[in-house]
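Researcher: Let's run the pair from yesterday's discussion. Sequence first, then tokens, for each.
Model: Starting with the first of the pair.
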Amino acid sequence: MYKAAVAEHDAPVRSMLLDMLSWKAYQFELVPELDTPRRIRDALLAGTHKKIDFILLDMQESPDDVLELLVFLYARGIHPVIYVLCDYGDIHLMRNAFRYGVVSYIFKPELSRSLLRRQLQSVSQLLSARDWNESLFGGLAEKELARVLKKADDAAAFIPGRQGRMLSHRASALLAAAAREDQAAAQAFLSAAGSPAQYAVAAFEIDAFCRDTDRFKDNIALSLVQPLCGFVSELPCMRSCVFASVSAERYVLFCPIGPGSAAQESVRSICRSMQELWLTYMNLSVTAGISRPAHGEADFYAACREAFGRTGMKFVLGFTGIYTEDDDCKLSITDAENASERYGGLCQALKTMDRALITQMQEAIITGFYIRPLDEAKKECLYIIYQVAVLLRQYNIDFWKLFQKEDNYYARIMQLDSMEALERWVSYYLRGLLDYMKEQQERHQEDSLHQALMFVAENFMDPGISCSSVAAFIGMDERIFMTRFARMTGLAFHNYIISLRIARARELLAETALSLSQISVTVGFNSVEHFCRLFQKVTGVSPETFRKTPAA
């Protein structure tokens, strides 16, 4: 039996929830006294109830108390399955709730016996699979595949009536591993999926992953990946599909399809529903790529690569799109990837901000344009843009000012009506790109300097701290670090360390009875004589005098 608590402030709704069906039939023992978020929190804090497996929370009952309970559970590493009851207008509350481990939701206006039955079945199965569920939602490492599948098979064997659900989890775990090109997993997955005559693979990538998921960083698996997957499982159109997390940023969908163009449109419709759901309830924009119809195991890896490759079209055609083979006429991802052989030198010059080399590369690029037809030259321009996106992404440079969600570089380039116009556009683009890279480098160095200041604040009492060690810690050239550090603080690094040590020594002299020798060692000096000499030089009085009259 699993312990369950229902925190619903509306008495009629609570009675309906408790009396609509037998919770014990689904392996749940209700704890009636835990009927508010505060009582649940107090019971766990006092230890009167050491474990609660499932919590159903009313989002409208004291939202602050609900959030306080979620934060309490989150901070203490207590992870019951949490569902929320909500109305259609509670989206802003739900977004906060999902940050702290809420798995799914039930809309009150849609509450019925059949809906509650399905939800309790889902929660019961989720709890049964808890020991390996994180592998499904967080991404399955290949080396864990055998262990996870064994647990899944064992669970299915000992839970009567749940083999179908276990198979669904098992197929998801297999799909995650297969999408990472594990051949054995692919064979097992297609077998588990019933080896459909024809299927399509859809890939999803969160558009601004580093920027938009920072709010989930404390626990990506529980606060980001698990709710994303939980939402998808609620879609009726997913009954014949299998969905899995390949990583926190990337997801894959396997869809059996029939013949004809209508089948492809059905996959597009599923992808669109998923995008809308994630944007509405998680405030995350996602780009999707769909493979061509595939057949059997031989096509599986090609379909996965094709689908994930098409998510890269967003850099040229715009974010939040759903890209299929119909878009290949606009941009061939294969050709764009292969263009690295032609434009790798340009990317290297941008990375090192070598203006002379960039000018030289620009001249070569424009010369190459003039020996091609205009349409081919435009395609080359698109390949350059794609390669720039790959470069910025590879080096974790914030490219969202260059690649906005509404941008469509393809439309911009196709509007140019002459080679001269294309030449001007490329010249302006590369010039702006170089300025942007320089700005980003300076911003990165500024961030690194703030990181250095934090490091120094935590370690200034270490006798071994030095300018070279801190520069190495933030990955900056020592000479550049010395110059920029002095510009930021107004002090040379050595003098800055001394100022921090003397300030700490003043505190210890005023507030403790430690000897001068002990204080000297504590704040990082190797010699008490050196400490006393520097203290008097900085403060104008000796340590002994300062201790007698610290207020002075």
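Model: Moving on to the second of the pair.
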Amino acid sequence: MYTDGALYLGLAGETRVTMPLNMCNRHGLIAGASGTGKTITMKVMAESFSDAGVPVFLCDVKGDVSGIAEPGAQSAGMEKRIDKFGLRTSFSYRGYPVSFWDIYQEKGHPVRCTVSDMGPDLLSRLLGLSPAQQGVLDIVFKIADDRGLLLLDMKDLRAMLGYVGEHREEFITTYGNISVQSLGAVVRSLLPLERQGGGLFFGEPDLDIRDWFRTAPDGRGVVNVLDCVKLVQNPALYASFLLWMLSELFEVLPEAGDLDKPKLVFFFDEAHMLFADAPKALVQKIEQVVKLIRSKGVGIYFVSQSPSDIPDSVLAQLSNRVQHALRAYTPAEQKAVKAAAQAFRENPAFKAADVIMELGVGEALVSVLDEEGVPGMVQRTAIVCPQSLMAPAQESTRRSALAGDGMEKYDKGVDSESAYEMLQEEQAQAEKQAALDAEREAFEKEKAAFEAQKAKEEEAARKKAEKEAEAQRKKLEKALEREEAQRQRAAERRKAQLERQLINTGAQVLRRGLLGTLFGGKK
């Protein structure tokens, strides 16, 4: 409950325990064993922030946080608690303005981001890539950027990795060495993320983080509830979402300094899922963002069973703490209890390590910063009761909230033309060109064969014609020879005949001459 510029968390004896609104962006931790009241505390704080006009983001791990959209149910137990906390005149059962979100697109508006928004640095940290593998991923993003190939979803990234692998020899001189082993490692590292639902998380329309900074018409902050019942079973995707969201907030929001109230408050339930087996680089990035995002006016509250679930580097940034009961049945658990107790500013009235194991359901050790930023003395506190329903919301309530929150623009996915489609088109064009080239080559071969056959036939015809011409020439020559021989024979016969005639004529003349001589010139 919000009152007088502070969150009313509960009672320590007769003393009200409050958390100043201007210190709420110093981050916090809500811890405790299962069933000790962590979720109730988270809902009480979320309601208070909403009443103060601060938008809230909640992880709904068990499905019961959705009840914040409906008024609480009146009961004898609730009425006793209302009187106990002195809320008779100010308490009312009521629901809060809620937007439901779901990465798996089943129980809320889809939450998406593009691969390009995630970027090679965050993606490498998330996938736990080695420096060499990260270098290859940097090259893949650079090639995509240089060639105007948008990386929006997982199929774009896979298509780009395949494309670079096929053309790596072309890119080595321009972008550096691209080993097949590193490419293969990047592809393999995507498999767990895809199996856990990365194909749904990466895509369009991508979430504009500013849509979580909304207030209802009555001035209360909108409570954005992310359905995590399925998500917490997939830590790689849960960590992807957290890392992207915090980085996006850090990039989008301007420096704000110290504000009267946060711009936005996040609650991450089952926070140990974010850090279980997380690569060191990922933890370092989360730590960096958690440190710096305070100055952007954003508060982050991790909810987990034990403070030991949170890395020390992150735990050190959590100034506001609500510690519910812990159990200490093993040496490791006893050590965790001792560590949790030592994190508080000591209260001389009791020993925190003993009280942690004695707390009942709905009780907690609370230590928050005062208005000057000084950690308050730890107090054993009975947490105030929530005003909304302490059970899952009805399906009709969920549908009504989804239809009336103005976020329907995210409901229908968009498959824009991006790297996958462009590379598919390029491949289709290449295949088409290859088919045309093959067809042209076949045509050229057929043409060459035809021309060769034609040349062969022409050569054969030429040779045949030459042979026939030669035969004709020889025939003609023989005919001419025969004619010449006939002329020769005719000429010889004529000559012989003329000679005979000449001989005959000469003989006659001679005979006449002789006779004339003999007979005095007379015959």
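Researcher: Give me one sentence on the second I can quote.
Model: The mean pLDDT is 90.
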